[in-house]
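User: I want to check something. If I give you two sequences, will you return the structure for each one separately, not as a complex?

Assistant: Yes, each is folded on its own. Here is the first sequence with its structure:
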Amino acid sequence: MTYQQFLEAAQTPEFVAATAKLGAIRRGITWVGVRVGFVLFRLGLSANQVSLLGWLFGIGGLSLFCWYGQLPRWCAVIAAVCCYAGAFLDFCDGAVARARKSANEIGGIIDGITTDFIRSSLLVVLGIVARSAAFAIVALVSAYIVVWLRNQFIWSGLYASEARPSKSSASSIFRWAFSVHVMIAVLPLAFAAAIVFGCVQSFARSVSALYLALSIAWFWLACNDFGCKASANREQVPIEKPLDHQSCPVVELK
């Protein structure tokens, strides 16, 4: 398959329409991901193998963050690069799948889990390097709410990913803090900088506490919004009036 044929197969009309709705940064990353996908395609890798490679990069980067005390400080930069590589390969496997005509539901699930895995694991690793059992529990709770519980709300239709519970400044803060841009693009770099400058413990505790507060606040607002919507739906349901015995015809039995 030539380069042009690959682009035609990978960039379907549905894909182009979905990409047009993304922000400028994600459009640029997607554009590069399709081109890198061609290289991976020529190397003979399948879409699932690209996804697995992303997982391995993510696990490697997170492991280096966990062992920062036993490694030179410059290894933190390698850890951040590994996390970025794992997240970036998430933009490549879809193009490979479409070019090989192997796109399926299982591949779509694997494709979506990679980024969520890195996002949630970063919070867990922050709790681990804080060197406190309390902060480890805080990180686990935050990771569960921010990624997995939030996804359950979205998938079940209780919380639409585009129509947020409110359009207030608080909702904008949640969108920003839980976004891929912050959790994948900013956190690994900030994590590596904290290790290089020797303030990783205070950084980990501060970020863990911040995400716990944000995740609990988001969960409370989302549940409150769902309760308000449920009450509004109940009010819109017409209630049948009970029958008036005086308006009922009387039938005499003979």
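And separately, the second sequence with its own structure:
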Amino acid sequence: MSKGALIVGIDDYTIQNPLSGCISDAKKIDKLLKRNGDKDKTLNFSTTLLTSDKKSKVSSRNILKEAKELFSRECEIALFYFSGHGYSDEMGSFLITPDLENHYSGIEMQQIINLAKNSKAREVMIILDCCYSGYAAIIPMLGENLTIIKEGMSIITASRKNEFAIEEEGKGGVFTSLFCEALEGGAADILGDVTIAGAYNYVDKLLGFFAQRPQFKSSVSTYKTIRKCKSDLELSEFHEIVNLFDDKDEKFKLDKSYEPHFGGNEVEKHRKYRILQKYAKLRIIAPRVPEEAKKQNDLVDDFTYHAAEFGGYCELTPTGKFYWQLVKKGLI
């Protein structure tokens, strides 16, 4: 099934102070979502980009029109991203649009949430980089600490309900900058997959230096990949883990015949050794060298090369054992 995204970036305001980085932030998100970051740059999301520059006049009406269109599609993922001003008062919380008037506050965040609740997509993602965005999905009459979202929906906001979202001069939003880094591979797992939960985790840790705190609200049992990035490990090589280790607690014995540097024409052993080297780099396995060899030479340590040279072995790390079980059960 396809993936669809509506991406909104607004710098130009009349009543509110203009912003400087929201359009560029939206364009970065648009570019990253359109194609994956794998070696073939495969197609990913079908995107609609709305910005407040001269080419596109953004209003609350056309944002809501495009949002309705997005959430009415039957697709794998429907994603809504907004970068601009946010506002909150006793009447509710709002995404501010350029057509703001004195008695009109913009698009209620709850309007977007309500549209998303009725979405036909298997998974819905809402990402808001604006002040007071933490109000999204809060129902005031039920208490400000209670959030109601449907199954299959995730919401990431740049700040809590009472916080500003920081924009750095010439760099755009701090939140979006980190979110883009996550999509570029900072939040990728061993196979290069980035999920919404992984992206939030990346942003959350790095935003510790700033006053604003991102919020993550989700009701999802299994997170889908939002972007595929390059991985040092091919899927076929990953599946080899259950062939190299018959049991998750097994030790893989090494000797000099595995390391091409020591000569020989053991093609199959060399193939397995290359995969083990990749596993070690990703901390799926831990090479072990005999203690006697370490005592005799201070330069010898637990590396795959030394394990082969001195007749050591490799064993699965706790992470490796986890992935071994997933492959064994056919879950990867």
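Because they were folded independently, the notes below concern the second chain alone. Residues 267-281 form the longest helix (15 residues). The chain has two domains: 3-228, 235-328.
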